[in-house]
Design goal:
alpha/beta; about 375 residues; TIM Barrel; eight-stranded mixed beta sheet; 18 strands
Length: about 375
């Protein structure tokens, strides 16, 4: 842990973002993705706030361990889904799913037969995820006849039918997205024709939600969007259905200030600064998950542009402004805050996706939760 840098997380803004989603999709339930420590924001505080203040009753994890951690930490009547690392072939996992009331998302035929043939899983909800074009995890469409036959044999329904867009950051009219929508609808039609009931369905992740798609399903599955950052590429000139803000603000204290002229060497490797100006040495570095790859990245502080110059150190970094700021030693310098366009610009210039920037922030960086 450290005192010189902080990721400040506004839980009220999380609530506002979730309300924006609910207002746009008033008849849909929300399955909020909280995997990877809630995208680096803290899985327990985020889940707790969304459940207690926004009434979210379904949460998505990547791993069984994440789901167990939530169940051990929080009380409440909410669903927990495990999307990828289900570990169903591990004998010890059975008791975890049954005792902790956790639901695996079935995405391969072996796990499907394991679940449906085992009488211990008789009352476990069946959640099936189909591959409609992502070509990652997912049951294959050509396995549907076998799946239908097995469900009929055991007189089982599907609790939740899922798929996942590969390119929802692009227009849903994109040929890849159109094919996935068509295929998902064909799966639904086939199940209906064979009298296989599915109680819920979902395909819309953040990018699809931004494009107002998913009303025909019972659930939508926001991830990055709930934390305030858009995922749709703005150069598509799409009408985006989103008016939220970032829930986090990354700040670091100024350790030292020095004036420099263009060409002054700084830090490891003695890299020359590109312009004359003022250097602010700040207390955040790659030990906090502030990547070395951020070197030379610009960001906006107020109305002024700062540039990360020289190598990012383990515990600090150097920021160059051509104009001197109204900052003194010990003051806080904000790298990003409520304005998601500033964060988006930072990510683009750093050639990183927002997910990676958030998730890479290390446990050494304190998370401070506020409600304002």
């Amino acid at each position: 842990m450290r005192n010189g840098a902080v990721l400040e997380i506004n839980l009220n803004q999380l609530g506002i973002n979730l309300n924006c989603i609910n207002e746009a999709f008033p008849t849909n339930k929300v399955l909020l993705m909280v995997k990877a420590d809630a995208y680096g924001h803290g899985i327990i505080p985020i889940t707790k706030y969304a459940y207690e203040n926004n009434g979210i009753k379904s949460f998505g994890c990547a791993t069984l361990a994440e789901a167990i951690y939530i169940r051990n930490s929080l009380e409440g009547n909410f669903e927990l889904f495990v999307f990828s690392e289900t570990n169903l072939k591990d004998a010890s996992s059975k008791s975890m799913y049954l005792d902790f009331n956790i639901i695996p998302v079935i995405s391969n035929i072996e796990d499907f037969f394991l679940i449906t043939d085992d009488l211990d899983y008789k009352y476990l909800p069946i959640v099936l995820k189909f591959n409609t074009g992502m070509n990652r995890l997912g049951l294959e469409v050509n396995e549907l006849p076998v799946i239908i036959k097995q469900l009929q044999k055991h007189n089982r329904d599907i609790e939740h039918l899922m798929s996942h867009f590969a390119c929802s950051n692009l227009s849903l009219e994109n040929s890849s997205n159109s094919r996935q929508i068509k295929l998902f609808n064909e799966i639904k039609k086939s199940l209906n024709e064979n009298n296989i009931k599915f109680n819920n369905s979902s395909i819309s992740n953040s990018g699809a939600i931004e494009q107002n798609y998913g009303h025909d399903d019972t659930f939508i599955r926001p991830g990055l969007l709930a934390y305030g950052q858009q995922s749709v590429m703005k150069n598509n000139l799409l009408k985006i259905n989103w008016d939220g803000d970032l829930i986090s603000s990354l700040k670091a204290k100024v350790l030292q200030i020095r004036s420099v002229v263009k060409g002054t060497p700084i830090g490891y490797g003695a890299n020359p600064v590109p312009n004359t100006g003022t250097i602010y040495i700040t207390a955040i570095g790659y030990g906090d998950g502030f990547s070395c790859s951020f070197q030379s990245t610009d960001f906006t502080y107020g109305e002024k542009i700062g540039k990360l110059v020289g190598r990012i150190n383990m515990d600090m970094c150097q920021v160059l402004f051509t104009e001197k700021l109204n900052l003194n030693k010990g003051d806080w310098l904000e790298f990003w805050g409520k304005d998601n366009s500033n964060f988006e610009s930072f990510c683009k210039k750093a050639k990183k996706i927002p997910y990676e920037v958030f998730c890479n922030l290390s446990p050494r960086l304190p998370r401070v939760y506020i409600k304002c």
